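Regression test attached.
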Amino acid sequence: MKKSYLPALFLGLVVAASVAKAQDAVVVANSGVKATEVSSDDLRDVFTGAKSSLKDGSHVTPVTLKGGAEHEAFLKKYVGKSDSAFRAGWRSLVFTGQASMPKTFDTDAALIDYVAATPGAIGYVSAGAANDKVKTLAVK
Amino acid sequence: MSRRVLSLLFLCACASTVFAQDLSNIQIHGFATQGVLYSSANNFLGANTSAGSLQWTDGAVSVSDSVSDKLRVGIQLHMSQLGEFGGPSIQVDWASGDYKLNDYAGFRAGKIKTPLGLFNDSQDVDAVHLWALLPQGMYPIANRSFYLSILGGEYYGAAKLGNKGGTLVYRGYVGYRSLDINGGYQNEINSGVASLETGLGVPYTPPTSPSGGMSFGGDVRWITPLKGLLIGESTMIADLHGSQGPVTFGQPLNSIDQYYAQFEKGKFFADAEYRRQPVAFHEAAGPVFVPIPLDWRSWYLMTGYHVTEKLQLGTYYSHFVDAGGTNNTALVANYSKDWTVSARYDFNPYFYAKLEEHFVHGTDGDYYADDNPNGEKSRSNLLAAKIGFSF
């Protein structure tokens, strides 16, 4: 009886670890962005359209993933909104003439390529996807 | 005339932009909705809702271009029909140039949308709301264009309040606003004009051009350090001057003050707002001067929850009362109370449907005398359903 639940427990831990890993998102920016770190409040303000610069004055333009665990986790952790509320917020800004819609990407690789080529672009990708084409910003 | 000028300015800006750069920064978005209204008793919102009405159509297309990091230009064209209000003609919803110097200082000029509480500037954008109808005591759909935009300029910005104080977002504007000759307020003004002209023994004079007046105000909202909590206040100060035949009408500068709070956490949200709008309206013809003192007070509480990724449920209670002059606010003719339950289903990121039931008590709301010639019942339910598309 004691032995019977151990494999299930082990399997559960493996699954939990893989899910946690999949949902880790790192913040990446174009290498021209001066900042090396960003506050969670700045992330919230930039990704809700309230601000377009970081604390050090770097001008930034947010880009996002279209969906997926990292996208949901990023929104939940830093923006405090569900995906639909996040999209509704941006639609509201766009249709009232206050902002342009952030560009969205299907994959980490596509987002990284865009951020690498676009001055001021800031986004997020899954942990492990970031490479030396872009700058990784620590979140304080 | 002003619409033509704005369109021309926008086209010039676009043309110069296209010559100056590639087209990758141009964005085109739009939405379209079709609704149905069915009421148990009274006819609502200028439509024959007691028999069921499909006269509820909205659509818009916006084009914008980020010319540089700091300069953006855009235009949105909008068509709206609700019962006898609005019509098939296309209006300029907004058309502006937007220069953002930095986070603290940005400027917009042209036809711009005006903030007043949580939803004034987005009240004609159905796709962003759970509700088919926003609380009508505060955001009356038949009159939304009167509050929605001005021809003028706006200053806006945001400032972080230290490391742990949250962020303050602010907007201030000044300009000219017009009263839609196919809107709800004009409908009520027409009744007063007809009555005065009958007294003078002259035939009724319909409106031929929009009346209007100055509008200025601002909005300050605090994104608090408590994650998901937003608190704000808006003020709009505006007057109105118009005439139809021998009748003049209008109001001096009156102030609308609105206070609000919003809390969002994951799949849950709750909003609350309070608005007070005293209006010293009058109609006059020759020696006859008819003061119409109004004091509109409205508030609501609403909440919603994403049951699943695609299904969102919500409810609100909206309360409106006119305490102007010697009004007895206990009379059903001077208030409107609305319990609403609503569901929204998003088939995908583009298509959605809404189903909503309103339980309305009181008659100082969305009713017009010419749609209810036999009088209005104190209670009536309204079913509102909508399908929409947005991209």
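Expected vs. actual: identical. Chain B touches chain A through 48 residues (CB under 8 Å).
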